Structures are given as structure tokens and as C-alpha cells.
Amino acid sequence: xNFGFQLRLRCFGRDEKGAAAVEFALVAVFIMVPLLxxxxxxxxxxxxxxxTQNVAASLADVVARDTxxxxxxxxGYWDALEVLIYPxxxxxxxxxxxxxxxxxxxxxxxxxxxxxxxxxxxAGSSVTGLAAAMMNPGTSIIMAxxxxxxxxxxxxxxxxxxxxxxxxxxxxxxxxxxxxxx
Length: 182
What we know:
By secondary structure, the protein is an alpha+beta fold. The protein has one domain (about 5-170). The chain has helices spanning about 5-15, 20-65, 70-85, and strands at about 95-105, 105-115, 140-150, 160-170. The longest helix is centred in the N-terminal third of the chain and has 46 residues, at about 20-65.
């Protein structure tokens, strides 16, 4: 081997210029990779939460515009879940649509309820937790609830998944209350 080349190689090995940059590059990988994976999980989870909220709001809005709800329409609502939750899996979405009659300023009862993966409420049962502004006697509201258990693609932030739950309320627009027909 050439003596000049060996001398340059030894000098290169003893030179400490740039050592901090190399150390930083090695350490930065351990900081940047988890940050990247965590941000992918977080952004995807936020999108899934938004879609779950959109499911409740959209279903409540569509039902509130109707004059009656039939079996075919309910089947159509469940079919619409595929589009509303896309690209997430619609089979993992649980939904309940409930028509609620406001009896007086403190009492509200279920007129009818339909569930998809979520148990329907019994007609005539009492509804609690409604805001005082909703409690206008003689009126009715549509309540749509959605629940979606989200599994992250990376499994980095939410190892066991996270469940998003949303409720949306809309006033019946055309008839009060909206009847449920066969």
C-alpha cells in the first residue's frame, strides 16, 4: 500500500472536525422517526374522528328533512355509511338515529329509534341530557349518534385503538315528529 495514502487515512481517522454533525445525525434519527410515525398516527386519527362526526351530523340532517322514515330509507342510511366514513371501514361504525318528542321543559321521550351496530332505544323511554335550549314543548328533534373504534396504521400513539363518539341534533323541518312507517 502507498505510504502517502496510509498517512492520509490515519490523519482522517484522528480528525475530529464534523464529529458533532455525525453524532447529531445518528441521534436525530431516533428523534425524527418516532416524531414522523406519531404524526402519521395523529393526523389519521384526527381524520377518522372528523369522519365519525360527519356521520352523525349527516344522518341527523337527512332524517330531519324527511316527512316520514321507511324501512327502505333506513337501509339507505346504513348503505350511506360506506361513503361517509371512507376510507375507513364502514362495518366498524355503530350508529343510532332517534326521533325525540319534547313533552315539556324537563321531559323528552323517544318516538322511534333505529340502530346499526348500536342498540335502538325503546319507544316511550325517557331521554336525558338534552340542552335546555332544545326543550321546546310540542316540538321534536332528531338525534344521531355515531361510534367508531379507530385502529392506527402504525400503532404508534394509540396501541389499543381509540373510540370516537359523536351526537348530532337537528330539529324536524317539515313534520313534527317525523313518523316511522314500514
